[in-house]
Inverse folding.
């Protein structure tokens, strides 16, 4: 057993011993909102957004980007589980700013071992073989941190599966202070349209059974 695995299982045993009333938490998030944020280990959404178990959905990926899969989760979040507000939260000093699609594709084609980050960016220190499969992935790297938030909020706002009455907020988390800094252009892009403000997001729609004749 690895040291990390042992630590995780030990921590889980402690958690189980005091699990208590958490077993009664409902499936839908109690505070009815979702956060799309980065997987960076320095970010703890429970702390920076004041969350307890059962409060909100937290969707994480590299960069906190509005990828197809992130939008899939957001759509399930509102459509089936009743969330009414979305947050897109990126952060300063994000690793996704330190390379381009071409860089990571080149690194992967050379070697599958972990690259090294130096003053001039990432470089390979491992041995091959690598793989060309990285050529077929859109890595969603970041050139401009604020613009990336605007782009992601805009994509979610304009997506045909996202209702116009769900506000989408855009922020950048400062890793030096812990503060959420508003991205004004993203806030404007994610606003609820005036014509949809009166529409309720929690209206229950009856589901009719389909009869298929074969």
């Amino acid at each position: 057993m690895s040291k990390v695995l042992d630590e995780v299982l030990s921590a889980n045993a402690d958690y189980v011993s005091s699990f208590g009333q958490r077993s009664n938490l409902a499936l839908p998030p109690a505070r009815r909102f979702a956060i799309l944020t980065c997987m960076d280990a320095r970010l703890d959404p429970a702390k920076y957004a004041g969350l307890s178990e059962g409060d909100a959905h937290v969707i994480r990926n590299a960069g906190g980007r509005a990828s197809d899969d992130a939008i899939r989760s957001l759509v399930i979040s509102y459509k089936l589980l009743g969330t009414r507000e979305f947050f897109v939260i990126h952060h300063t000093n994000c690793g996704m700013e330190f390379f381009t699609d071409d860089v990571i594709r080149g690194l992967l084609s050379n070697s599958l071992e972990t690259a090294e980050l130096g003053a001039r960016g990432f470089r390979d220190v491992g041995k091959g073989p690598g793989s060309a499969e990285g050529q077929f992935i859109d890595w969603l790297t970041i050139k401009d941190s604020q613009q990336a938030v605007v782009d992601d909020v805009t994509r979610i706002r304009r997506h045909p599966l996202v209702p116009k009455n769900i506000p989408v907020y855009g922020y950048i988390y400062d890793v030096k202070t812990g503060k959420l800094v508003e991205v004004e252009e993203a806030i404007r892009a994610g606003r609820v349209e005036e014509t949809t403000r009166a529409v309720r997001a929690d209206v229950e729609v009856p589901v009719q059974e389909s009869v298929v004749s074969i």
About this structure: The CA atoms of residues 5 and 11 lie 10 Å apart. Residues 3-17 form the longest helix (15 residues).
